[in-house]
Amino acid sequence: MSKVIFEIEGGAPVTVECNPGDNLLELARRSNVAIDAPCSGNGSCGKCRVQLLEGEAESLKSRHISEEEWNAGWRLSCNTKVLGDLRVLVPDIASAYQSRMKTADLSTGKEVAIFEEMQENLKAAGVEFINDFMALDLQMEEPTLEDTMPDVERLTWAVKAAIEVEQVHIPFAVMSRMAKVLRENNFHVCVKGQHKGDKFECMELCAPEDTALIGCAIDIGTTTVTMVLMDLTTGKILAKGSSGNGQIRYGADVINRIIEQGRPGGRKKLQDAIIKETLNPILANLCASIGISARSILRLCIGSNTTMNHLLLGVDADPVRMEPYIPSFFGWEGLLAGDLKLTAHPLAPVSIAPNIGSYVGGDITAGTLASLIWDKDEMSLFIDLGTNGELVFGNRDFLMSCACSAGPAFEGGDISCGMRATDGAVEACTIDKETMEPTLEIIGNPGQKPVGICGSGIIDLISELFRCGIINARGLFDREGSRIRRDKHGSGRYVIAFEEESETGREISINEVDIDNFIRAKGAIFSAIETLLNSVDMTVELIDHVYVAGGIGSGINMRNAVNIGMFPDVELEKFSYIGNSSLTGAYAMCVSDPANEKCAEVAANMTYLELSTYPGYMDSFVAACFLPHTDASLFPNCLRED
Amino acid sequence: MSKVIFEIEGGAPVTVECNPGDNLLELARRSNVAIDAPCSGNGSCGKCRVQLLEGEAESLKSRHISEEEWNAGWRLSCNTKVLGDLRVLVPDIASAYQSRMKTADLSTGKEVAIFEEMQENLKAAGVEFINDFMALDLQMEEPTLEDTMPDVERLTWAVKAAIEVEQVHIPFAVMSRMAKVLRENNFHVCVKGQHKGDKFECMELCAPEDTALIGCAIDIGTTTVTMVLMDLTTGKILAKGSSGNGQIRYGADVINRIIEQGRPGGRKKLQDAIIKETLNPILANLCASIGISARSILRLCIGSNTTMNHLLLGVDADPVRMEPYIPSFFGWEGLLAGDLKLTAHPLAPVSIAPNIGSYVGGDITAGTLASLIWDKDEMSLFIDLGTNGELVFGNRDFLMSCACSAGPAFEGGDISCGMRATDGAVEACTIDKETMEPTLEIIGNPGQKPVGICGSGIIDLISELFRCGIINARGLFDREGSRIRRDKHGSGRYVIAFEEESETGREISINEVDIDNFIRAKGAIFSAIETLLNSVDMTVELIDHVYVAGGIGSGINMRNAVNIGMFPDVELEKFSYIGNSSLTGAYAMCVSDPANEKCAEVAANMTYLELSTYPGYMDSFVAACFLPHTDASLFPNCLRED
User: Fold this and answer.
1) pLDDT tens for residues A309-365?
2) Arithmetic mean of pLDDT, B488-516
3) A269 vs B57: CA distance, rounded Å
4) Do A171 and B334 touch (CB under 8 A)?
5) Which chain B residue shows the shortest CA-CA distance from A173?
6) A179–B324: do the CB atoms touch at under 8 Å?
7) pLDDT above 80 (res B229)
8) Mean pLDDT score, A583-607
């Protein structure tokens, strides 16, 4: 047995035992040490850097580690074998996203405004914000020798006297505490439950003053989890919070997580990572912050992609990934918080927005609900840029959806200087055409130095490099200057921040390989749009609205996204950024039973197009892997200053 | 800390630590050492005898321990304090009932015949033996790229194709295993569940050959638990078993158990005693004996008194005992086997036959169902002689019920030589008037010597002593002879077995205190019958049938029971012994949905008479405390040979 000590920057060290030969990244995962590994440990992303401080290990060289860094002990943990006792430094940068992820979580006024506007639009579209949850104040007669009605019958009658129902269902959990609660409160109690048609389903029996009816809307993204608690009666938001998805240490994308869950004990491990390590801590925090008991949370609604909701339920997700790509469920009713041991009332129903296909999930259904594109005569395109890219196109008569695997580029994966949208990320930039000097907008407090660049920043950067003629249509460097450096083979890179300008003391730059990776990602999005439209015999000119959702930064510069050929070249006023539409939809499902039904209806009416087997998609993709496109006529408004 | 070693006759010793001053019976209970203590440790029954072998203890003297026994170290454990390290012998006789209780558990041909006749009668009365449990054989198409329906939808469609339903409900437990089970069985599976109207409730998804649909009927008596497993489709009995109720070490009667459950941790302790220590071992044994998985048990129906079903559910039973005597529930739907962690399918519904009042419970409702008295024009009296005595009187137009506290006499409590109906119990006897010599029928193998006398034997004995003029109407000894002995105060006793004739080497005799106790018990029964009839302006002449149920022996000599004034003096052919009617009713509820509904209907139509507050009951009781009664004209056929 060897002993490995992980010295975690800004945290307590973790000591674990292992066998010589064990993989260091694997060991970190087993030991709950967060190391960022978006590529799930295949050596391609270069994000899982650690520094060997002491001891024996064997690593492979990597293009992500310079000679100088190698000599200082830097290694990729994914290709490092433990040979004996070991002490390694785990940089804080790698785990920073976990607690400080900036995303569309209603933390800014702008996000809240978008969120509220969308709810108002839903109401205006005729979706009533009502639900069947109730808290009944029941004052019963205390039993006497003349009135010997038992507790269950007494309560049943009291409910029937308060509201018009034929059946009152009392579950075991309520039943078993009834004698005590009734007597402690002298038969004056609050009963919480659901009033369904001629039936009342009791969920909670408590003191008369405890009348809280709380709902919880959750967006479970592959990368980030966002949650709001609201008053189920008034719809008022009471608390909000977010954190990284704890599953991230098992891989950045859904494919790697599905592989991971297929290993022995994997399903349980991934389920624990999302429930015990992610959802429950946020739930507990939010409850504490507003001083309520978790038992007050009586309904949960979840927007999540197909893989995420399978992993949440602990259902084997392998069939999602393997041909013929069969999820266990699209829509499914009957889940209770207690089934998942969520920090909420165990009898609280958990509604998962229904999936459409293996790669278009409930997050898109919920987002589509929120976007209102199902209510319009005009043609709308809905784009959700998460870890995958998902698209929905249509109007009140039809809805087509598809997903494309853009890879992790929009979240900073596959880009050497890429990072998620956390502190230190360059989220926007412009370049002076003359001097080629950049002006950066960086996430964080004033004075924050750059650490890397996130999705929205990369879009700006590539658009600006292209506009200024620094790179050509194939993403290769065409100009020279102090910010342009080249390796021994002549391959160029643009330096965003020199060593002395960066937070880490390492140069931040984008090279031709990065740009090529990004062009493939944006090409996947554009060709998916083109193919989706093509499948219904439409062209981009016929698009009336484009709704862009997702959290790849606090927003996207639409002009730049069009400029690089990621989004279609339509009038800029047709674009709307609608934030975290999955959360918005989940919120509506929680507060509004009609929204919940509408969501199921939207899902039932949506057609899923499997892109990977659709004729012409690959050709379209290859043609889109240029700036802005091989067919420049598709982008008449492209800015290319000569 | 002191160390106490319980040397259990015929078992492994149990060693426990305790504090000096701890009560020895309490300590035995905490340590799961079975010591018979029908009076729950108040010193009155004298059953909790142990022999001090070594060490220090402090005990009170007791009329139950002779001088000679005291010197040999015999003590009542209920009044013994541990003073230091101790070694005590726990006689096997005390714990014998636990495994060898003889009761109406379908172990004899006669019992089975009664049981089967009652089921046939139910069918003849129009109660159809059908239920909504089904095992569907589903052969689905395997998914392909062209047929990408998810698992849940695929299964739902297959169920809808097999039976006519609109909704198919799939619970989480089925959902979470679905992907695996479907693929392991190449989409050819068996689905078990309940077909309720236009809905099918899935309960189990398994290999196509596993089609077992098993039901379980349970009678939970205060003293004994009896169970049968049956095929839910054919009704065939597959296995049967019984054992003592593990709660017995917390008191022989319901009052003492309610007191015990009210102590800290008591509810859990009593619930564990019935579920973990009693029901689950029998369930596991029965499943093993017929080679089925406990998951095949898909329905359970229980007949139990009000206290027993409250303790089973872990619901506070204190209000049952305390004025105004309010149970938590009469009827209540919604219990699942998983709620109680019963060894059965966790989703199996558990139906508890509804209670009528604090002391007339579901065992009586189930028994009344089985007795068919609700279907007759004639007037019937139903008597269940368990630890309490419960009565129902009426016909198809009305049903009146009441309970009387006969005390533990019928089960051998409060009688110095009394014992439960286990091996060694005298269960019947006659006495030669001339010689006063008894002829005994003893439970057990041929040659079994007597240990004590059980309820049916006591009825015979007192009737015979009275018939032969050995005792008078007040139960005092009137004759002398070799079998009549007197103490120094002149108080007499009749020796059933001399020292050398008994299994234990101790004299077995019945004394005037015992006889007085028994007369009070039989007086309680008779006065309850009289009061119940009186409450509806009826007299004994109007009784057409008397059904006697219960397990106080393998049967009762009705002639003798009338002779001592316990049962009314009606024609002997009006009496029928119907065995364990609670189990018979529970069986019918399990196999037949209509029986289940009928049981609820019977309960709803039954009126409960609270005897303790009914005017005239006490007078009636006092008048009945003679042999056969102070008003001899009520018993014209009484045998009293002069």
Assistant:
1) 999 999 999 999 888 888 999 999 999 999 999 999 999 999 999 999 999 999 999
2) 92
3) 55
4) yes
5) B339
6) no
7) yes
8) 96
Cite the residue boundaries of each domain of chain A with CATH code 3.10.20.30: 2-90
Shortest Cα distance from B176 to chain A (angstroms)?
5
How far apart are the C-alpha atoms of B58 and B20, rounded to whole Å?
Answer: 11
Q: Which CATH architecture has domain B2-97?
A: Roll (3.10)
Rounded to a whole number of angstroms, the distance from the CA of A362 to the nearest CA of chain B is 14
User: Which CATH architecture is the domain A133-206 placed in?
Assistant: Roll (3.10)
H-only helix segments in B359-493: 362-371, 455-467
Domain A212-352 belongs in CATH node 3.10.450.50: no
B172 contact residues in A (CB cutoff 8 A): 313, 334-336, 339
Residue B552 banded pLDDT, cuts 50, 70, 90: low
Which residue in the set A150, A318, A328 is minimally distant from B150, CB to CB?
A: A328
* pLDDT value at A94 more than 50: no
Instruction: Please tell me whether residue B8 adopts helix, strand or coil conformation.
Output: strand
Interface subset of B 136-175, CB within 8 angstroms of A: 143-145, 147-153, 169-173, 175
pLDDT tens per residue across span A573-589: 999 999 899 999 999 99
Cross-chain residue pair B169–A333, CB shorter than 8 Å:
yes
For B267, nearest residue in chain A (alpha carbons)? A176
Sign of the dihedral through C-alpha A270, A273, A276, A280: negative
Q: Does A540 touch chain B (CB under 8 A)?
A: no
Show the tokens assigned to B48.
């909790």
Contact B97, B36 (CB under 8 A): yes
Task: Give me the residue label for tokens 């060991």.
Answer: A27
What SS3 class is residue B241? strand
Buried b (16+ CB within 10 A) or exposed e, B465-494: bbbbebbebebebebeeebbbeeeeeebbb
Residue to substitute from B153, B329, B351, interface A, most A β-carbons within 10 A:
B329
Every domain range in chain B assigned CATH 3.10.20.30: 2-97
Mark which residues 211-230 of A lie under 8 Å from B by CB.
none
Q: How far does the CA of residue B282 sit from the closest CA of chain A (Å)?
A: 24
Question: Are the Cβ atoms of B323 and A151 closer than 8 angstroms?
Answer: no
Q: Does A326 touch chain B (CB under 8 A)?
A: yes
- Residues A18 and B148: their CA atoms lie apart, in Å, by 43
Where, residue-wise, is CATH 3.30.420.480 in chain B? 212-352
State the alpha helices, DSSP H only, in A8-124. Answer: 24-30, 67-71, 92-100, 109-124
The answer to whether the Cβ–Cβ distance between A178 and B326 falls below 8 Å is no
Identify the architecture of domain A2-90 in CATH: Roll (3.10)
Sheet arrangement for strand B484-486: B484-486, B492-497, B508-511
- Of 3.40.710.10, 1.20.1090.10, 3.30.420.270, 3.30.420.40, the CATH number of B362-408+519-580+605-634 is 3.30.420.40
Considering the segment(s) A362-408+519-634 as one domain, its CATH architecture is: 2-Layer Sandwich (3.30)
For residue A99, is pLDDT > 50? Answer: no
